[in-house]
Amino acid sequence: DQQVKQNSPSLSVQEGRISILNCDYTNSMFDYFLWYKKYPAEGPTFLISISSIKDKNEDGRFTVFLNKSAKHLSLHIVPSQPGDSAVYFCAASAYSGAGSYQLTFGKGTKLSVIP
Amino acid sequence: NAGVTQTPKFQVLKTGQSMTLQCAQDMNHNSMYWYRQDPGMGLRLIYYSASEGTTDKGEVPNGYNVSRLNKREFSLRLESAAPSQTSVYFCASSGGPGRVAEQYFGPGTRLTVT
């Protein structure tokens, strides 16, 4: 059973508008959430994260919102730019012992920003 | 700082052949990970090493072995490759000060098993 779900495989947005990517999770033990961006033929790159004790974290054009009661998080990109076109992965973290944290990834959402 | 490096970038194997994927990080991270990415499947954890000298299974360990050679290096071995192991393999590391949960990924190895 998928513990982290990204229900939209793809999303198209006009340049300058807001992109909203959604993610749902089922495991209450997850205590840290991350978004990664991936371009073709490259490794995922860390974008932004949020601890379960917060409900919002901002970094420039990127904001992540966490709704713990709904087990839902979202990534907002404002304004969207053509260079934001990539696959975005939501990941949830749980402590796995000895200082290590395992990440569980969603299947990704492909964002296309149209000039 | 090169971050996380992986070799080779591409590899084609015949069924039954063996190979080792190499990974190294220069960020002084304690933890290292191996993932595979298949179309429509996201990233799935194969093995991880919380610290030098320890390794543990992840979600999909069958058909793989790992070695944490030292703090910098973590290798993934396929003893007898199968077509089902055709995938893109990513190595990652984590353990930066104040950012222990954030993992940093290498560029990947694209493996085809025929």
Q: Which helices and strands, and how do they pair?
A:
The complex is a heterodimer of chains A (115) and B (114).
Chain A (H helix, E strand, L loop, with lengths): L3 E2 L4 E5 L4 E7 L6 E7 L6 E7 L4 E4 L2 E6 L4 E6 L8 E12 L2 E6 L3 E6 L1
Parallel strand pairs in A: 2-11
Antiparallel strand pairs in A: 1-3, 3-8, 4-5, 4-9, 6-7, 7-8, 9-10, 9-11
Chain B lengths: L3 E4 L2 E4 L5 E7 L5 E7 L5 E7 L6 E2 L6 E5 L5 E5 L8 E10 L2 E7 L3 E5 L1
How would you explain this protein's 3D organization?
The complex is a heterodimer of chains A (115) and B (114). With 115 residues, chain A is an all-beta fold. Helix content of chain A is 0%, strand content 59%. Chain A has no helices and 11 strands. Chain A has strands at residues 4-5, 10-14, 19-25, 32-38, 45-51, 56-59, 62-67, 72-77, 86-97, 100-105, 109-114. In chain A, the strands form 2 sheets. In chain A, strands 2, 4, 5, 9, 10 and 11 form a 6-stranded mixed β-sheet that branches. In chain A, a hairpin with a 2-residue loop joins β6 and β7 (62-67). Chain A is globular, with a radius of gyration of 14 Å. Chain B is mainly β. In chain B, the strands form 2 sheets. In chain B, strands 2, 4, 5, 6, 9, 10 and 11 form a 7-stranded mixed β-sheet that branches. In chain B, β5 (43-49) and β6 form a beta hairpin.
Q: What percent of residues of chain A are in strands?
A: over 45%
Specify the overall morphology of chain B.
globular
What's the total helix number of chain A? 0
Radius of gyration of chain A: 14 Å
- The helix-strand sequence of chain B is EEEEEEEEEEE
Kindly, what is the distance between the CA atoms of the first and last residues of chain B, rounded to a whole number of angstroms? 36 Å
Strand/helix succession of chain A: EEEEEEEEEEE
> What structural class should be given to the helix and strand makeup of chain A?
mainly beta
Q: What general outline of chain A do the C-alpha atoms trace?
A: globular
Query: Using DSSP, what is the number of strands of chain B?
Result: 11
Low-pLDDT residue spans of chain A:
none
Measured as a percent range, the helix fraction of chain A is under 10%
Oligomer: heterodimer
Largest sheet of chain A: 6 strands, mixed
Count of separate DSSP helical elements of chain B: 0
Rg measurement of chain B, Å:
13 Å
| Largest protein-protein interface | A-B, 26 and 30 residues
Q: How many strands appear in the DSSP assignment of chain A?
A: 11
SS class of chain B: mainly beta
Contiguous uncertain segments of 5+ residues of chain B:
none
